[in-house]
């Protein structure tokens, strides 16, 4: 029974991470493009919106970090396959990398472009890790080296029949 609830928790938390990461990417881009780049002038209302987006970006980062820990807990308690477990750990590792990049960027008074790049590249990694994990939640490749699935049995290679699974 616990396994069933953990599986639902894994689905919900993974979908939530994907949605929050996408929203955080948009808020991060708007903040960097319109608030931090020199030479851009905007009205006061627009500037307030962008400042609100930067605060939202920070809070969402903390939420993604917390939910990433929940994803790992649910992945191991639901006894998911190894692919899901590995990508949940990878997702947390890349989330930590994004957090470190964001922390370094903020502590350098928004001047260190390398940390900004680390944060942005880690965002792509987080999205990819959880998307691939989401893919493997239902589909596990049934592959063994040297064997061929049922539908390819009639194919021969250099005159030899391929081995069956």
Helix content: over 70%
User: Widest sheet: strand order?
Assistant: 1-2
User: Over the alpha carbons, how many angstroms does the gyration radius reach?
Assistant: 22 Å
The low-pLDDT segments are none
Question: Which structural class is indicated by helix and strand composition?
Answer: mainly alpha
Main β-sheet, in a few words?
A: 2 strands, antiparallel
What oligomeric assembly is this protein in?
single chain
What order do the SSEs take from the amino end to the carboxyl end, as H and E? Answer: HHHHEE
Can you tell me the number of structural domains?
1
Q: Specify the overall morphology.
A: elongated
% residues in beta strands: under 5%
- Intertermini distance: 33 Å
* Discrete helix count: 4
What does this structure look like?
By secondary structure, the chain is mostly helical. The protein has 4 helices and 2 strands, in the order ααααββ. It has a two-stranded antiparallel ribbon. The mean pLDDT is 81.
């Amino acid at each position: 029974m616990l396994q069933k609830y953990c599986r639902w928790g894994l689905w919900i938390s993974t979908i939530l991470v994907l949605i929050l990461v996408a929203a955080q990417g948009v808020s991060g881009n708007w903040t960097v493009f319109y608030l931090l780049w020199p030479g851009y002038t905007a009205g006061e209302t627009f500037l307030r919106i962008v400042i609100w987006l930067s605060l939202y970006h920070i809070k969402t980062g903390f939420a993604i970090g917390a939910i990433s820990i929940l994803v790992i807990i649910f992945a191991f308690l639901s006894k998911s396959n190894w692919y899901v477990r590995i990508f949940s750990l990878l997702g947390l590792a890349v989330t930590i990398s994004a957090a470190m990049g964001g922390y370094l960027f903020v502590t350098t008074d928004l001047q260190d472009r390398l940390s900004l790049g680390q944060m942005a590249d880690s965002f792509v990694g987080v999205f990819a890790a959880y998307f691939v994990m989401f893919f493997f939640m239902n589909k596990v490749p049934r592959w063994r080296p040297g064997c061929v699935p049922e539908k390819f049995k009639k194919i021969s290679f250099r005159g030899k029949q391929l081995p069956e699974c």
